[in-house]
């Protein structure tokens, strides 16, 4: 992290990069919900043709919902060009702070030494040509906020026979069990499924299943934490596992995002900036090595236009881009700055937290702009990555596109833009509300005609028997043209071929759900922890139980046994049969197992344990 300390003083570098916090005159706060205009200086604001490119700044000029802990982000400028940044709050006065450089050298943030005061107007003055404030000076308002959302009650699924897997060698693991219930089975043998079972019945956490539906990996969450959105992504030139973990309440998550390597060791944690908490709905790593995440920020907002109160608690849906090495914010988008509460399809009445927007996916378009899905406006938005402006809206009350027959959707999740030219959009159309809009949920592919602004149906994927999901769900496009659909609230996940034929239909035994479901081929996991072994005596001898949580390369188990711990001999070689392989051997007092790959190479060995 580049940290350029702003202080009165002593070093040449400090003097060069000092922040001059002289008083900045700010007008009185406007009424709640009003739009602030960028501050101006005397003289023309027109830049000559040779002016440098505009610098993106966040919070954006005129923002109404900046958090108290907001950093002031400048993107598209060298940190060493920020020679004069003046920050003043209308209540808190002048602010000193630090200039902290982004890891790519293409931006920096002014991080105030003290938080701002709720309700005040902050004036930022620079010598830069800013997006939305070419004069270099602008204002934003600090939101009045009631505080973070507390943890919600636990919601474990009702117990059913066989609803969890249990293992002799790993008595600490009790993941939700699943079974394949249909399909032709024509899926790649090296394909693994990546899930995050929620609602127990006993444990929640990231889970990997093989092509036969057998457990490969499970990591139980601590306490009442849950996990969401386990998938394989690329980071620092290697394939990694990523997921979100934390607590939830009212459909909102508060936690952090995790990056693990193929040995299941933590590489990085990603936290939301500005004092917010990362939400479960999105964690997308970009080709630039940054992270797109979301957060929910409860603020007091005038909602009388939709039948609410003047000081209604409304959830501002926040999209942030995070610089992983430094933890700095690179971009922020707030729904309340761009989409009015009147666009919501849900009612404010009897709602303690008015979740009018409910962001649930963020995708990166090929042109560098963002696609944001909002469950509760029934719409997706293309967002300018430099200014935060809405470029177009798909669906909802203010659609930029004319929706063709069958193209309208409701309470959707996981909106992803595909292809180039006339674009295709995939999404999971929940449709179940409340209120119920569609008779069943579906995977939906739309074609967008960008010239004529029309949206038409390309394909529809539905489950048999019909399912209705009130929340969650996703559609993953697979190599070769197939799709994997996670049915959200419903305990199913289904793989379709290119023509819509069901190749695999699976479900959790209990009514456990997974926020999303993914399939990836050739995931290679070699755990840093050794294999596990347990042994029990039987009438005929000893039963050995061998497992290695997360190993994808183990093909055989080699059993060593003997009467003394330090003197063990090869007893048996067997093929691995699942997460845990039971192996019968003659009676023995001490047992050790070794994992071998398909070529017979030793991968790792367990500790020696006594038979019980």
Structure in words:
With 612 residues, the protein is mainly beta. Helices cover 1% and strands 42% of the residues. The chain contains two helices and 43 strands. Strands 1-6-7-3-2 form a five-stranded antiparallel beta sheet, with no helix packed on it. A five-stranded antiparallel beta sheet has the order 10-34-33-32-31, with no helix packed on it. A five-stranded mixed beta sheet has the order 26-30-29-28-27, with no helix packed on it. Strand 29 (442-449) and strand 30 form a beta hairpin. The longest helix is centred in the first third of the chain and has 5 residues, at 12-16. Residues 1-45 have low confidence and may be disordered.
- What share of the residues does DSSP label as strand, in percent? 35-45%
**How helical, in percent, are the residues?**
under 10%
Which term fits the overall shape? globular
Low-confidence stretches: 1-45
Distance between the termini: 54 Å
Number of helices: 2
Radius of gyration, rounded? 27 Å
> Main sheet: which strands, in order across?
1-6-7-3-2
Main pleated sheet: 5 strands, antiparallel
Number of strands: 43
Structural class, from helix and strand content?
A: mainly beta
Rounded mean pLDDT score: 91
List the helices and strands and how they pair.
Elements lengths: L1 E4 L6 H5 L39 E3 L13 E4 L9 E5 L3 E2 L2 E5 L5 E6 L8 E6 L10 E5 L36 E5 L8 E8 L8 E3 L5 E4 L7 E10 L2 E12 L2 E9 L5 E5 L12 E3 L5 E11 L10 E12 L4 E7 H4 L20 E6 L5 E5 L4 E5 L6 E6 L6 E2 L9 E6 L4 E7 L12 E8 L4 E8 L12 E4 L5 E4 L5 E5 L5 E7 L4 E9 L10 E6 L4 E6 L8 E9 L2 E9 L4 E6 L4 E7 L5 E4 L3 E2 L2
Parallel strand pairs: 26-30
Antiparallel strand pairs: 1-6, 2-3, 3-7, 4-5, 4-8, 6-7, 8-9, 10-34, 11-12, 11-35, 12-13, 14-15, 15-16, 16-17, 18-19, 19-20, 20-21, 22-23, 23-24, 24-25, 27-28, 28-29, 29-30, 31-32, 32-33, 33-34, 36-37, 37-40, 38-39, 38-41, 41-42, 41-43
